[in-house]
Amino acid sequence: MFSAAFVTRLLQLLLGLFLYGIASSLMIRAGIGIAPWDVLSQGISLRSGWSFGLVTNLVGVAVLLMWLPIRQKPGLGTVLNVLLIGPSAQLGLSMLPPVSGLLWQVLVFAAGLLLLAIATGLYIGANFGPGPRDGLMTGLHARTGWAIWKVRSLIEACALALGWWLGGNVGLGTLAFAMLIGPLCGITLPLFDRRVSVPLPAR
Q1: Residue 30's pLDDT is what?
Q2: Contact 66, 193 (CB under 8 A)
């Protein structure tokens, strides 16, 4: 039988992943720019005709395959990240209409950004393993010896550039995400952390 602590952590993980997808859909509907990895998924979606949620899943699988040469090992949280964030984001997109008017766009984007920071704290704090993008970042750091911030910046810059080239929405929201997600996760991670040490922020 699973312990109460395990069940609590699992529920926290599932809630975090669900809210992560909803947060992404809020920022997409705001229409003023989105997170780098979402720019990539959106660009592929626009070019392929596949749904954003499906593309998010496929990108997660592709990133997870990149773990093989750097010998990273996925956890339960890694696998569920790949499987659940895409459907959650697609659900949010099906329920939320596009937003018009700059004030409403900013407010909806801010709500999505804040919700994503909370979701990140929940899902990472559950301690079931990193997401595919986090694991790629930490694995490359371990293999190359480069500073974490350099590895993360390089990976996200590549995802952003490719997504923008494919037609993903890059705007002021993208810049706001880059500047604010770190400090916001610095607040939410300790709130939901179920470990002694706190890892680096998500996605």
Answers
A1: 97
A2: no
Rg (CA), the chain: 16
Instruction: Check whether 24 has a pLDDT greater than 50.
Output: yes
Contact 112, 30 (CB under 8 A): yes
Task: State yes or no: pLDDT of 29 exceeds 60.
Answer: yes
Rounded to 5 degrees, what angle do the CA atoms 17, 20, 24 make? 145
> Are residues 46 and 168 in contact, defined by beta-carbon separation less than 8 angstroms?
yes
Contact call for residues 185 and 201 (beta carbons, < 8 A): yes
Give me the pLDDT at residue 51, please.
97
The 3-state DSSP class for residue 168 equals: coil
Mean of pLDDT over the chain: 91
For tokens 């911030």, the residue is 149
Give the rounded distance of the alpha carbon of 12 from its chain centre: 16
CA geometry: angle 95, 21, 93, nearest 5 deg? 25
Q: For residue 6, what pLDDT band results from cuts at 50, 70 and 90?
A: very high
| Residue 14 burial (CB count, 10 A) | 18
- Cβ(202)–Cβ(120) under 8 Å? yes
